[in-house]
Amino acid sequence: MKTVLSGIQPSGNFHIGNLYGAINQWVRMQNEYDIIAMVADLHAITIPQDPKKLQEKIKEVVALNLAAGIDPNKSHIFIQSENPDHTYLAWILNTITSFGQLERMTQFKEKSQKHEENVGLFDYPVLMAADILLYQTDEVPVGEDQKQHLELARDLAEKFNSRFGEVFKIPAAYIVNETARIMSLQNPEMKMSKSDSNPLGAINLLDSEEEIRGKIKKAVTDSSSSISRNAGSAAISNLLTIYASFNNQTLDQVYSELEGKSYGEFKNLLADVVVKKLLEIQKRYQEIREDEQALRKILDQGRDYAISKSSQTLLEVKEKVGLV
């Protein structure tokens, strides 16, 4: 069975774009792959965090993913900082990484404009490479913004293998087919995002029913007044995509069902299906989140599994470079 590594940032609010663009695909993948999923708390602290809020967010992220369908008997979830092999390997990989490779990283340029520059912000792609290579990962789910990081991991694996001898698998990209590319409710030209400056742009998984209905009611549309297969803006297409996703339908099926309905009627129907689904997830989330002991057991089991895999790779690396 192939190994897939997935990283989850414990920051921001998970929204319906995350649910249909990432989490649901992970749910499907866990039946076919050995999924190792880390909560990337070491990556999160490259930008300022409130320590207490970070601890809470880590638990929230894990509980939400479990509530959305991740099965801890099939997927191994752990907290990155609880496995010291990640930082150990990152240091060794630092010694074969050039400044030029890191200076070309577009995310460093973007993040350093928003936050105070620090060495961690500059160097975190090497830690990400260590995350991937530790587990002899076959495939890594990547979006457009992460392709550079996977390429760095591949380059460093090849460089290490060439210099010291074969240790690392060369990871491949798992191309995520975004069957549901969900855009902002206020700017349909942009993907729904945790960092959207407009709070009305995203429906968060933990939003209240009142908040969900309010955001859908205020979602931008266009100058038309009813659903038409032959007309409609990006804004309406986005709302129809959300409706199709929550109903597990194709867009063709949605048009057949809704054609001719007014935007007002459609928004009410959309709000109903979104509320129903998210309230189900929220109910499971509360049950999981309130059982701290069970949540800790899942994370402990995930950590132990991760270390059992990573320690083998790290021992080989240390032997190759002369540290054992």
The biggest beta sheet is recorded as: 3 strands, parallel
What structural class results from the helix and strand content?
A: mainly alpha
In CATH, the topology of the largest domain is named Rossmann fold
Broad CATH class of the largest domain: Alpha Beta
Strand content: 5-15%
How helix-rich are the residues, as a percent range? Answer: 55-70%
Just name the CATH architecture of the largest domain: 3-Layer(aba) Sandwich
Distance between the termini: 30 Å
The averaged pLDDT comes out at 92
Strand order of the largest sheet: 1-2-3
In angstroms, what is the radius of gyration? Answer: 21 Å
- The low-confidence runs, each spanning 5 or more residues with pLDDT under 50, are none
Query: Outline, from the CA principal axes?
Result: elongated
CATH superfamily of the largest domain: HUPs
Order of helices and strands: EHEHHEHHHHEHEHHHHH
Strands, count: 5
Please outline the helices and strands.
Layout: E1 3-8, H1 16-29, E2 34-39, H2 41-44, H3 51-67, E3 75-79, H4 85-94, H5 99-103, H6 106-114, H7 119-133, E4 139-142, H8 147-164, E5 172-175, H9 209-217, H10 234-247, H11 251-258, H12 263-290, H13 292-321
Parallel strand pairs: 1-2, 2-3, 4-5
Helix pairs in contact: 3-12, 4-7, 4-13, 7-8, 9-12, 10-11, 10-12
